[in-house]
Amino acid sequence: MIKFRGVPLDDYSHDANVDFDGTFIYGNYEKVGDDVLISSGKFDLEGVFVPDLFAKVDPKTVGQFTGLKDINGKEIYENDIINFGSIWCVGDECDPREEEHIGAVKYRTDCASYEVNCNGQIFPLMEVINFDGYSVQGNVHENPDLLEEDK
Asked: How far apart are CA 68 and CA 11, in angstroms?
């Protein structure tokens, strides 16, 4: 499923027709002139998307759904901060690691894939889901402190 989220420039907390969680609005990505919009709507009987709302969003906050969910069932979006654990497993074989990792999900245009950058160490998102306990901890817009190294 292709969908996006972004922080709206207006308050949508009282609009029942909008997929709004208090921070992000969810839907389709639209660009009209200089405006970046997230649209919501429905599909008609012929399968054509019919928008019923266009919400202006802060372009810096737009992120695409990766198509994956964390171990708690939470959808993983671009710019989410992921924590993943110390055991890497493929099938029945597991390899204990000494460290945990935390990093932000980014999209790589050169190979059309998502990766997690953990202090300069890059993990393909599809490999992260092989670690134990991978979960969304927040996002770079609301929780940038989660990415700061211990000082």
From this structure: 28
* H-run or E-run covering 126: helix 125-128
Question: Quick one: pLDDT at residue 42?
Answer: 72
What gap in Å lies between CA 99 and CA 151, rounded to an integer?
18
Residue 44 neighbours by CB under 8 Å, 6+ apart: 50
Beta bridge partners, 28, equal 39
Q: Which residues contact 110 (CB under 8 A, 6 or more apart)?
A: none
DSSP β-bridge partners for residue 32:
35
pLDDT digits (tens, 9 = 90+) for 26-40: 998 989 999 999 988
Structure tokens at 150: 């211990």
Task: Name, in order, each residue with C-beta under 8 angstroms of 73's C-beta and a sequence gap of 6 or more.
Answer: none
Closest CA to 5 of 108, 19, 81, 134: 19
Task: Please name the helix (run of DSSP H) or strand (run of DSSP E) that holds residue 103, with its range, or none.
Answer: strand 101-108
* Closest listed residue to residue 38, CA positions, set 53, 49, 23: 53
Task: Pull the structure tokens for residue 5.
Answer: 């989220």
Residues forming a β-bridge with 144: none
pTM (two decimals): 0.82
| CA gap 33, 44 in Å, rounded | 27
